[in-house]
Amino acid sequence: MTAIPGCNNSNVIFLSGVHNVMMRNVINGNGCATDFVANFTNQN
Amino acid sequence: MAKKKSVSRGKAQKVTNTKSLAFLEKYINNAAPTGFEKPGQQLWLDYIRPYVDTHIVDTYGTVVGVINPDAEYKVVVEAHADEISWFVHYITNDGFIYLRRNGGSDHQIAPSMRVNIHTDKGIVKGVFGWPAIHVRDAAKEEQPSMKNLFLEVGATSKDEVEKMGIHIGCVCTFEDEFMVMNNRYYLGRALDNRIGGFMIAEVARLLKEKKDKIPFGVYFTNSVQEEIGLRGAEMIAHRIKPDVAIVTDVCHDTQTPMMNKVVNGDLACGRGPVLSYGPAVQNNLLKHIIDHADKNNIPFQRAAVSRSTGTDTDAFAYSNAGVASALISLPLRYMHTTVEMVHIDDVESVIQLIYHSLKSIKNKQDWRYIK
Q1: Domain contains A19
Q2: Any alpha helices (H) in chain B, and if so which ranges?
Q3: Which domains are seen in chain B, by residue range?
Q4: Mean pLDDT, to the nearest integer, of A4-15?
Q5: Record: contact A2-B102, CB cut-off 8 A
Q6: The sheet that has B185-188: what strands, in order across it?
Q7: Is residue A3 part of a domain?
Q8: Which of B307, B316, B337 to mutate to probe the A interface, most A CBs <10 Å?
Q9: More confident residue, B264 or B326
């Protein structure tokens, strides 16, 4: 089970600011935006 | 007044055997970091090959065992093959190694763990170092984070580290082994979701051994790259173009200390597979699975998810023109740690539930809500 936010409800709580913009991309697109995943992976 | 029919849900029947459990142990003890799943995929393919007609391997390493490859109607039974890990990111001049995550690796559990660093020269042993309790400031305890976690490999310089075969981009996994706890639980690193690969392979074995005649194509799919955002499933969904997808992954047991049932629901290891309700789950397929759980006396639990399941179910459901998809989850304790635990009875039940749900699907079954 992925822990990547946007792919997993439990981590959406950590979203804020720029993440929310990326989250909209996730919701509007297919699956998860690459930038969003990279951001989470590298900064958290 | 009609007498209410009571549904009794029994204990799981054992379908695994000595040979399959030997495969499980070998499969779990092999590392399969996201993006580097090849050795694990080879093990999985070698195990499932006798039970399928042919197989597909895609460019990024997803492996699919196929029954009836020429059939027009296609049903995917899917799990993911990859595990969370770490990337070597920066080597200091005095030989310490800083990392990046490869998937949702847990910084909280890392200090003092032993790791395997996977290099072209083979495994190099390392440890997550951490300052001793004696020297830390109790008033300002620093939490482990990607900014302070580091590896030590016993080297004194960057040059020595590199001579050991370690370079930027090497992947690292925690060192540990599969075990059975109290004859009740399977325990190990990254049962999420190699246990899923094991379970779908067991379904393939059952179909073969019971000589079941399936009128449609069955695609046992062990996807790569789930842990970084369902990527392998996205790729293979477009390639297979299935009509149905039954996905299995793990979900959180919420019975242990510090878990919150209000937030995460009331789910328990030992109470059976968890069936999810949510937008990505096709309700007629879900009802089909529930009906066959009841019919075959297989215990199950229910979970609700909003927006996404956090599993490859989402990738299949929203692929192509929409694929009827459902999720059969295996409750698991301590996800993304080295001591993930699943109940043996639940493993048996998931295999049985997928098996009965799969073989009862009709050829060209139409799952639409309105016809």
Answers
A1: yes
A2: 18-29, 38-48, 158-163, 191-209, 231-240, 261-264, 283-295, 312-317, 344-359
A3: 18-83+189-359 (3.40.630.10), 85-174 (2.40.30.40)
A4: 49
A5: no
A6: B179-181, B185-188, B340-343
A7: no
A8: B307
A9: B326
Across the interface, of A10, A32, A43, the residue whose CB is closest to B229 is: A32
Grade residue B229 by pLDDT with cuts at 50, 70 and 90. Answer: confident
Average pLDDT for residues B81-98, to the nearest whole number?
97
The answer to whether B273 and B104 are in contact (CB under 8 A) is no
Global pTM exceeds 0.80:
yes
Q: Structurally, how many domains does chain A consist of?
A: 1
C-beta of residue B324 within 8 angstroms of C-beta of residue B282: yes
Q: Does residue A32 fall inside a structural domain?
A: yes
Confidence of residue A44 (pLDDT cuts 50, 70, 90): very low
Confirm whether A1 is domain-assigned: no
What is the span of the domain harbouring residue A26?
A: 9-39
Q: How far apart are CA B260 and CA B254, in angstroms?
A: 7
Average pLDDT rounded to a whole number, residues B8-26:
85
| B301 beta partners | B274
A44 touches chain B (CB under 8 A): yes
Q: Please answer whether residues B62 and B224 qualify as being in contact, where contact means their C-beta atoms are separated by less than 8 angstroms.
A: yes
Cα–Cα distance measured from residue B193 to residue B28, given in angstroms and rounded to the nearest whole number: 10
Distance CA B40, CA B4 (A): 49
ipTM more than 0.85? no
Confidence band (pLDDT; 50, 70, 90) for B251?
A: very high
Beta-carbon separation of B335 and A1 below 8 A: yes
- Whether residues A41 and B249 touch (CB distance < 8 A) is answered with no
Residue A16, chain B, CB below 8 Å: the answer is no
Query: What percentage of chain B carries pLDDT values higher than 70?
Result: 97
pLDDT given for residue B306 in this prediction = 78
Place of tokens 């804020």: A16
Please answer yes or no on whether A4 and B315 come within 8 Å at the CB atom: no
Higher pLDDT, B6 or B289: B289
d(CA B244, CA B366): 10
